[in-house]
Design brief:
Order of helices and strands: EHEHEHEHEHEHEHHEEEHHHH
CATH class of the largest domain: Alpha Beta
Helix content: 40-55%
Distance between the termini: 55 Å
CATH superfamily of the largest domain: Vaccinia Virus protein VP39
Structural class: alpha/beta
Number of domains: 2
Bound molecules: S-adenosylmethionine
Radius of gyration: 21 Å
Mean pLDDT: 92
CATH architecture of the largest domain: 3-Layer(aba) Sandwich
Low-confidence stretches: 82-87
Largest sheet: 8 strands, mixed
Number of helices: 12
Strand content: 15-25%
Strand order of the largest sheet: 4-5-3-2-6-7-10-8
């Protein structure tokens, strides 16, 4: 079967990298693991050796079917036609008795809250070499949900990993968006030749831990309004960006920024998540 570029199908073939990922995942036999995009099962086979409770979500039906057969797992959502697949995702009263299954479908259409709450999956880990074209939406999905995982171990594009784990001085909206909810850490780099077909970019494995699930929607909405305003024009100072976005005169804005203990002449990329939280209080 020819790998589908449109689905980000670059399969991991390097055994040493697999071993490092599994070691970093620090799996316990009782862990419940969700893997996004098992593909041809390179990482899945290793995960399956370590845990009893394992759910895989794969968009490519042929791969999902193959892996379900190989692992002797149940498969959900065989897409006889589009209507069928929609109905399962809209009514996912999926009852995984032994918590070992493959769901054939799009991770971004999955009703994660129902999947977790109806099956009592609360304490789960995500371990995955994710499709790079949807890196941000996948991370967002799992960090913003009511029931986040206890940890995520993800292989992502190297540059994206570095951006997510950046420190003040090199921050971006992506870095703030992840670090607001959790602690990301870049564990190690993976050369592009570890995959088949060889992708254009190198990769890195990151761990996202300490994920908070008690942040209210109102609180996060307020926070990100300030962050987006601060980042709206990259070269401009915080003072200029905030005063224009919030329609405040420069003097009032300057006072508010100073009250938060921040230099009004700073640029958004210099601020930490804590700085943004203080700013949110005063704006
Ligand atoms: N885990 C495998 C490995 O390490 O060899 C494959 C990783 S490959 C980078 C990404 C996988 O995600 C592919 O199997 C692809 O079909 C699947 N995929 C792509 N888009 C998806 C989506 N929206 N939902 C679920 N799986 C998806």
């Amino acid at each position: 079967m020819k790998p589908k570029k449109s689905l980000g199908q670059n399969f991991l073939k390097d055994k040493e990298v697999l071993t490092k990922i599994i070691r970093a995942a620090n799996l316990d036999a009782d862990d419940l693991v969700i893997e996004i995009g098992p593909g041809r099962g390179a990482l899945s086979s290793e995960i399956n050796k370590h845990v009893k409770n394992f759910i895989m979500i794969e968009k490519d039906y042929n791969l999902a079917d193959e892996i379900a057969r190989n692992f002797q797992f149940s498969i959900f959502n065989p897409p006889a036609d589009e209507a069928d697949s929609q109905s399962i995702f809209n009514n996912p009263i999926l009852n995984f008795k032994n918590k070992a299954a493959v769901i054939s479908g799009d991770i971004l259409k999955l009703n994660l809250i129902e999947l977790i709450s109806k099956n009592n999956f609360y304490n789960y880990k995500v371990v995955a070499n994710i499709p790079y074209y949807i890196t941000s939406p996948i991370i967002q999905l799992f960090l913003e949900t009511e029931f986040p995982p206890k940890e995520m171990l993800l292989t992502v594009q190297k540059e994206v990993a570095e951006r997510i784990c950046a420190s003040p001085g090199n921050m971006s909206i992506l870095a703030v968006s992840v670090q607001y909810y959790a602690k990301p850490k870049l564990l190690f780099y993976v050369d592009k030749n570890a995959f088949w077909p060889v992708p254009e970019v190198d990769s890195a494995v990151i761990k996202i831990s300490d994920i908070k699930n008690k942040i209210s929607k109102i609180e996060s909405k307020k926070f990100f309004r300030v962050v987006k305003a601060g980042f709206c024009a990259k070269r401009k100072t915080l003072l200029n960006n905030l005063s224009s976005s919030f329609h405040l005169d420069k003097k009032t804005t300057e006072e508010k920024i100073k009250k938060a203990g921040i230099n009004p002449g700073a640029r958004a990329q210099e601020l930490s998540v804590e700085d943004w939280k203080k700013l949110t209080k005063f704006l």
